[in-house]
Amino acid sequence: MTLPYESHDLAVAVADLLAHPDDPRLPIQQPWWRQSLALGVPGIALLHVELAAAGLRPWQRPHHWLAAATSRPVTAGPDSHPFHGAPALAYVLACAATHRPGAYAHALEELDQVITADARRRVAAAHARIDVGELPALAEFDAIRGLTGVGAYLLRRAPDGEELPAVLGYLVRLTRPLPVGSEVLPGWWTGSGPSGHVDSRFPGGHGNHGMAHGIAGPLALLALAALHGIVVDGQTAAIARICTWLDRWRHDSMAGALWPYWITRPQLRADRAATHRVQRPSWCYGTAGLARAQQLAALALNDHVRRATAEGTLVRALADPCQLAATTDPSLCHGHAGLAQIAHRMAADALPDTAGTLGPLVSRLLGALDPDGAGPRRTAVALVAASPGLLEGAAGVALAALSCSSAGAHTSSWDACLLTAPIAHPLT
Predict the structure, then answer these.
(1) pLDDT tens, residue by residue, 1-34
(2) Do residues 106 and 421 lie in contact, with contact meaning Cβ atoms separated by under 8 Å?
(3) Using CA of residue 81, residue 116, residue 170, residue 143, what is the dihedral sign?
(4) Dihedral (CA of 427, 149, 227, 47) sign
(5) Distance from C-alpha of 261 to C-alpha of 322, rounded to nearest angstrom
């Protein structure tokens, strides 16, 4: 099934329903609303930026939304992270400045100073933690709250600065084995459950594989930086080390390669994961995000076998009725929009045969955004009513629909925060 209309029509319909940041139907009184890239104003502003860059809506709209984000003081320092506060706002401003050079220059300069100072603080704290042999928190290194997300911003805004190599150097060290008591654990092993909190279901913690909170995020960033010519000591070895770990836990099924979302301490000791079951192949966790990270790693390592395997893995996952049936919502984070976006981005960097196969799969995934053929307006109303935001809501669905259409801005890398942006496009 494909959409009976152009996918960018859905993006426009969503944006028109989110035209005004002071709309009382939106959660404007929530404390997170102005500063959350995942849920609030910055993520919706990003949609308006991309529509304006594509010439589909006026630049005044993103300006209004960005003004709403800065109408009160913005959280910075330890209480901020890549998807909240100063880094979230800076990310959207940087996307706007990509399309309109010189725009928001003063605000970006001030925010960059705040973010680079925070990056230095975070890196120093992480090295101090490793020095005393403690396990990391997910929020130390992950893409949503941690140094991988900070590094993704620095790769876009300050690739020649001192902070990005420092982040990469830390990630290299993160991949090295860490002695803990009588055992040696992967350096990214955490003492918590996947929520980031101590969890009795995860005695001894876990090793997380996801793009959002696990080791696939650092893998993608290390590879992207290498592909843009930014390499620190040990970076290539770190990429290979993560790939070797993923190879260890890969399960080859009739529907292609599968990875558990995470590994527990008992599974690590037994060198065996739990029985593999069908799971959604999403961006945040699962096959799609891991396939993109490994495609990037293969390109960075010039590993033709791994590249073909990663690309073939996504094709098989998106053609598998069971895995698709496990995908039950339209979102960017873990739904059809995210799968379409990853397939679209991987196709841009894929071998020709794979690229040709992924195109029709993208169309089918976009069709799942409106399975009843309700039309762009009615579908947009339902999406916005459910959630207006980026990661799990209407803005993210709309951005993927725009990105996968012929009307999208061809130089866009709005999804750099997801570590899925195409390597063929400049990040600055």
Answers:
(1) 789 899 999 999 999 999 999 999 999 999 999 9
(2) no
(3) positive
(4) negative
(5) 17
